[in-house]
Sequence to fold (97 residues):
Amino acid sequence: MIEEKKFSKYLTDVCLSELCRVLEYKAKYYGKRYIQIDSYYPSSQECSKCGYKNEGVKDLSVRNWLCPECGSVHDRDINASQNILFEGIKKYVKELI
Ligand SMILES: [Zn+2]
Fold:
């Protein structure tokens, strides 16, 4: 069972790595910019509305959460995707300055 988990994690890492490689290649091919954010960025834990960091969202079983600061209700994946977009825009703007 442990070997299956290790192999599954390996496959996930390889697939993500390959996806990133292809995205970077295609972006360059079409003259677009490829920006990769830190893989340890806590995209699921931060409120995309106010920036509050909710440590209780680390558990993958938590699919929705309520921000205690601003009252926003977040779908884990949608919130994470918005945070990743904002983080990418921040990196892009920093590169321009
Ligand atoms: Zn909030």
